[in-house]
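F.,

This is the one I mentioned.
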């Protein structure tokens, strides 16, 4: 008021100034309103509690005022608020950052693990796996730590000399030797052009056991038989993937492959794939179902993957049938295909190889698959678009039977069964079971058939459309906060811990990244099928267990409502046991 009065004396007459001077009653009213507004704000944000004890920081007050169980806030179209301070998304693997990391470790009381744990995968630990049966490779399945005594309580270190991976697409063809310091494959697969050492780097020429001319030429040969270029094939599964060159070279054709192989079947093969920036997971066909819902993949592939497709009543091929979409393709190269040419190099008899091929053909026929073509080293079969004819045929041919009990999408420690997973019912022989998909890229934003048909309880078309738009806004906000998003090639491998409909991944589809969409088993896990119908990939996961991947797999981990999801379920036992990031 003193400053205002002085200004008035300079520019106004004393009478005018007196007329404009507020009365004491006005000042008291304004002070009362401000005080009332302040008290209402305190009550709204947590009530009138006792003052914190001496030494308690501001963080304590915030923690008591905001409930972890509150609904996830939505982003409005308004300008987001400025963060309190800059967020640090930089890597801290280098020696220059070790002082900061060590200080953080002391504060959180987590020491670094011994160097031997630099590639530790808790649920695929080699030593623990040896306690389980070798029959059907059960010992190579997931076997997580059974007690606290087995669980690591330390931070998994990077190997000595670790450096940030090369940016995509350079990373497809080259990786730092120090990041995956294993030479075994360069010797074992030297003549097959998988991988070679070049000074302090690995080079990936794109070769494979059954594609000596390179993965690109091999894929071109497949494209002469089935349509790889019109958008009708988007999702693929590569069983026994090696270093995932097949999946790596499909990416330029807008086909997204989920590649998997067992831990240490060939030293670090999946780790090499991930270091290249190619989607991959540790996995094996043994006794459990693959961790994907029914009708996920447009095609599946095996190139000398050494899986005994003809054994155990065709169990493994039956599992491939479960995860293939209606009308999907299965591609096989390597033994026994083209055995008349290769039997000497495979060191097997013609009788043995012919018997194996006839057995595989018989299993495929019992699944009602149609053999599209066998050309050179490649054979391709196609799954029917519905089961009208198949069910008629199986009134005569009783084996394998149609499954009657198990949920076709259930695939978290669910055992495989030697029975055909029935496709959804149709009313016409020309109808595609479960609904026909749009071609890529239309299928990314089109309402998925599982939602349009009402088969996912509580989910409507409007909810899906709103979720898609919401994640476009949220990802835009992330990019305004995380400066590295705008750096070309800085991020490549992304993980969404609670993907729901895959909206986060869909919003990033134009960026040079891929997203592993995880759907927690404690929530509405039926949405993973929606993710695949959109042309994206992912897996089921229980976040109370370790993930089937190597340390340092992901450049960015996205977690939306994960704690809220687990709150009230196993909150007291939920902890970050995963060391796979």
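My design for it:
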């Amino acid at each position: 008021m003193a400053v205002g009065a002085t200004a008035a004396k300079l520019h106004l007459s004393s009478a005018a100034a007196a007329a404009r001077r507020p009365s004491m009653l006005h000042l008291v009213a304004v002070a009362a309103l401000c005080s009332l507004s302040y008290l209402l704000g305190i009550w709204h944000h947590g009530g009138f509690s006792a003052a914190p004890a001496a030494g308690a920081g501001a963080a304590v007050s915030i923690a008591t005022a905001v409930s972890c169980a509150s609904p996830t806030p939505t982003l409005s179209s308004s300008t987001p608020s400025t963060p309190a301070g800059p967020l640090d998304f930089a890597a801290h693997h280098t020696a220059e950052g070790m002082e900061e990391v060590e200080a953080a470790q002391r504060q959180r009381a987590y020491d670094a693990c011994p160097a031997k744990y630099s590639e530790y995968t808790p649920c695929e630990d080699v030593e623990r796996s040896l306690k389980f049966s070798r029959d059907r490779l059960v010992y190579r399945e997931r076997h997580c730590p059974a007690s606290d005594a087995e669980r690591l309580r330390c931070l998994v270190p990077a190997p000595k000399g670790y450096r940030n991976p090369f940016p995509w697409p350079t990373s497809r063809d080259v990786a730092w030797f120090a990041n995956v310091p294993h030479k075994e494959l360069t010797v074992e697969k030297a003549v097959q052009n998988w991988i070679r050492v070049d000074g302090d780097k690995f080079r990936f020429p794109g070769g494979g056991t059954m594609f000596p001319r390179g993965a690109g030429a091999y894929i071109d040969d497949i494209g002469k038989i089935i349509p790889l270029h019109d958008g009708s094939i988007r999702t693929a599964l590569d069983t026994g993937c090696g270093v995932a060159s097949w999946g790596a070279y499909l990416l330029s054709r807008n086909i997204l492959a989920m590649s998997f192989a067992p831990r240490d079947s060939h030293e670090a093969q999946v780790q090499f794939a991930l270091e290249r920036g190619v989607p991959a997971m540790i996995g094996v066909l043994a006794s459990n179902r693959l961790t994907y819902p029914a009708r996920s993949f447009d095609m599946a592939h095996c190139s000398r993957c050494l899986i005994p497709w003809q054994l155990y009543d065709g169990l493994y091929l039956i599992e491939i049938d479960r995860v293939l979409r209606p009308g999907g393709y299965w591609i096989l190269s390597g033994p026994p295909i083209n055995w008349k040419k290769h039997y000497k190099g495979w060191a097997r008899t013609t009788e043995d190889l012919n018997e194996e091929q006839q057995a595989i053909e018989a299993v495929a026929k019992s699944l009602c698959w149609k053999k599209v073509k066998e050309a050179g080293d490649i054979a391709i079969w196609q799954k029917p678009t519905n089961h009208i004819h198949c069910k008629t045929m199986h009134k005569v041919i009783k084996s394998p039977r149609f499954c009657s009990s198990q949920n076709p999408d259930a695939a978290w420690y669910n055992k495989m069964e030697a029975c055909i997973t029935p496709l959804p019912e149709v009313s016409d022989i020309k109808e595609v079971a479960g609904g026909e998909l749009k071609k890529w890229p239309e299928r990314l934003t089109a309402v998925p058939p599982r939602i349009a048909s009402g088969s996912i309880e509580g989910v409507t078309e409007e909810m899906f459309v709103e979720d898609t738009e919401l994640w476009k806004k949220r990802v835009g906000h992330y990019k305004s906060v995380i400066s590295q998003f705008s750096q070309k090639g800085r991020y490549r491998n992304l993980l969404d811990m609670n993907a729901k409909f895959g909206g986060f991944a869909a919003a990033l589809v134009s960026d040079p990244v891929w997203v592993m969409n995880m759907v927690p088993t404690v929530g509405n896990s039926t949405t993973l099928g929606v993710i695949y119908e959109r042309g994206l990939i992912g897996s089921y996961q229980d976040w109370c267990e370790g993930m089937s991947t190597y340390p340092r797999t992901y450049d960015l981990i996205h977690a939306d409502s994960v704690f809220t999801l687990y709150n009230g379920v196993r909150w007291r036992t939920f902890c970050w046991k995963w060391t796979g990031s």
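The first helix runs from residue 2 to 11.

Talk soon.
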